[in-house]
Amino acid sequence: MPVTNRSVPPLRGLYVVTDAALTPGPRLVEAVEQALAGGARWVQYRDKAAHDNARRLDETRALRAVCLAHGAGFIVNDDTELALACGADGVHVGADDAPLAQARERLGPHAIIGVSCYNRLELARAAVADGADYVAFGSFYPSTTKPEAVAADPDLLRAARTLERPLCAIGGITADNAPPLVAAGADLIAVVSAVFAAADVCAASQRLAGLFAEG
Ligand SMILES: Cc1ncc(COP(=O)(O)OP(=O)(O)O)c(N)n1
Ligand SMILES: Cc1ncsc1CCOP(=O)(O)O
Ligand SMILES: [Mg+2]
């Protein structure tokens, strides 16, 4: 099945990333629904377990339906074949994943493909030249979800604006520390724990999504 070419929302706003520890199976769909109710525009399914493909397919199909109902975009982390199987809007790939060209070949021209560029502008230049739909930088702040992530500086976002492609910031981002990143040019703010570890997921999402409010 080709990846859907339904119209997706702009690549701007709050991008929530799921976590198998914070949002385990039974709570996953409800947590994502709460994040969407709070204003998240994009959702990424991030499950680093390489096994249990049946569970991963069930979960991604359920999340795709929820995103569709809210007019939000749905991306699968790492796994191009899973993105294809569940009909996601696209995939996010990093240095250890399938190359962008291979993901594009599998998912087709309408898929949204995001590429991790860590703290390296040259990776972003190459990804844009190869047709990335957005480029992601981080970690901007220490991350409990990915403590080993390299550190990135907001100046990178200022420099990357010249690429004229949506820029995503990730890593330790909260509603309190996100404003300088948005000011530096982040179009998407990708967040795991600030939303999914919150006691009130909807309220946490609302605060972050509010940073992109129009007017
Ligand atoms: C939006 C976004 N940005 C960066 C990443 C990190 O991707 P990667 O470097 O491939 O690391 P893993 O997430 O796969 O551990 C991401 N997933 N999403
Ligand atoms: C996947 C990833 N890549 C860099 S930091 C990170 C995790 C972000 O999670 P959190 O928002 O909890 O810091
Ligand atoms: Mg990856």
UniProtKB/TrEMBL annotation:
The residues listed in the UniProt record as binding 2-[(2R,5Z)-2-carboxy-4-methylthiazol-5(2H)-ylidene]ethyl phosphate, with positions renumbered to this chain, are 143-145, 172, 192-193
Q: Which residues bind Mg(2+)?
A: 78, 97
Swiss-Prot/TrEMBL catalytic activity: 2-[(2R,5Z)-2-carboxy-4-methylthiazol-5(2H)-ylidene]ethyl phosphate + 4-amino-2-methyl-5-(diphosphooxymethyl)pyrimidine + 2 H(+) = thiamine phosphate + CO2 + diphosphate; 2-(2-carboxy-4-methylthiazol-5-yl)ethyl phosphate + 4-amino-2-methyl-5-(diphosphooxymethyl)pyrimidine + 2 H(+) = thiamine phosphate + CO2 + diphosphate; 4-methyl-5-(2-phosphooxyethyl)-thiazole + 4-amino-2-methyl-5-(diphosphooxymethyl)pyrimidine + H(+) = thiamine phosphate + diphosphate
Instruction: Report what the protein is called.
Output: Thiamine-phosphate synthase
Which pathway does the record list? Answer: Cofactor biosynthesis; thiamine diphosphate biosynthesis; thiamine phosphate from 4-amino-2-methyl-5-diphosphomethylpyrimidine and 4-methyl-5-(2-phosphoethyl)-thiazole: step 1/1
Source organism: Acidihalobacter aeolianus
A Gene Ontology annotation in the biological process aspect, one of them, is: thiamine diphosphate biosynthetic process
Q: Which residues form the Thiamine phosphate synthase/TenI domain?
A: 14-195
UniProt-listed Gene3D superfamilies: Aldolase class I
